[in-house]
Amino acid sequence: MTQITAKLVSELREKTGAGMMDCKKALGETNGDLEKAIDYLRQKGLAAAQKKQSRIAAEGAIGSYIHGGRIGVMVEINCETDFVAKSDDFQNFVKDVAMHIAAADPKFVRSSEMDQAFVEREIAIYTAQLKEEGKPEAMISKIVEGKVKKLSTEVCLLDQKFIKNPDISVQDLINELTIKIGEKIDVRRFAKFTLGEGIEKKVDDFAAEVASMTGGKQ
């Protein structure tokens, strides 16, 4: 059996941020195998994070991110205590999520919020595209089915790959923070604004109006 040394425990603590006793126990359970001990702590931590999701999170913060004066995001993220809400870890997380929303353009927070009308509209678009590409009718339904299964990873914030680390999802990021601070974290809602969105810009009409007012001189 591998000897559980203080150096090994310290190395595991540095890699995972877990407490000394938890690290010592993890190494004991995995016969001193560092990589297995990391997996062991992550599994235990994820289970603990999932248990916290039933708790009430009514504190938190509303964060914002403005990109180039043309894209703006506001997001409300909740936690359980005002103390955690004011911590650097939580505040940095809120900023990161707001920036992610600006870049990744999610439509919903979670997959349960995707309404049937949205899904059906996407199916119609996929089907039309595939027909335009000349795909055989027999293949279209299978391809569309596969695209629908992946839809939540494209349009749902929690399922999207985190822009600063594509190896994890936004939900994974939440789980990591939950383990670290010991409180439930909940992304409640967000709004994204794009400059000029929804405004029909009639440049030619405007130019013609200016010309008529100046006698053709602009």
TrEMBL record:
<dbReference type="GO" id="GO:0005737">
    <property type="term" value="C:cytoplasm"/>
</dbReference>
<keyword id="KW-0251">Elongation factor</keyword>
<dbReference type="InterPro" id="IPR014039">
    <property type="entry name" value="Transl_elong_EFTs/EF1B_dimer"/>
</dbReference>
<comment type="function">
    <text>Associates with the EF-Tu.GDP complex and induces the exchange of GDP to GTP. It remains bound to the aminoacyl-tRNA.EF-Tu.GTP complex up to the GTP hydrolysis stage on the ribosome.</text>
</comment>
<dbReference type="InterPro" id="IPR036402">
    <property type="entry name" value="EF-Ts_dimer_sf"/>
</dbReference>
<comment type="similarity">
    <text>Belongs to the EF-Ts family.</text>
</comment>
<dbReference type="GO" id="GO:0003746">
    <property type="term" value="F:translation elongation factor activity"/>
</dbReference>
<feature type="region of interest" description="Involved in Mg(2+) ion dislocation from EF-Tu">
    <location>
        <begin position="81"/>
        <end position="84"/>
    </location>
</feature>
<protein>
    <recommendedName>
        <fullName>Elongation factor Ts</fullName>
    </recommendedName>
</protein>
<dbReference type="InterPro" id="IPR018101">
    <property type="entry name" value="Transl_elong_Ts_CS"/>
</dbReference>
<dbReference type="InterPro" id="IPR001816">
    <property type="entry name" value="Transl_elong_EFTs/EF1B"/>
</dbReference>
<keyword id="KW-0648">Protein biosynthesis</keyword>
<dbReference type="InterPro" id="IPR009060">
    <property type="entry name" value="UBA-like_sf"/>
</dbReference>
<keyword id="KW-0963">Cytoplasm</keyword>
<feature type="domain" description="Translation elongation factor EFTs/EF1B dimerisation">
    <location>
        <begin position="93"/>
        <end position="197"/>
    </location>
</feature>
<dbReference type="Pfam" id="PF00889">
    <property type="entry name" value="EF_TS"/>
</dbReference>
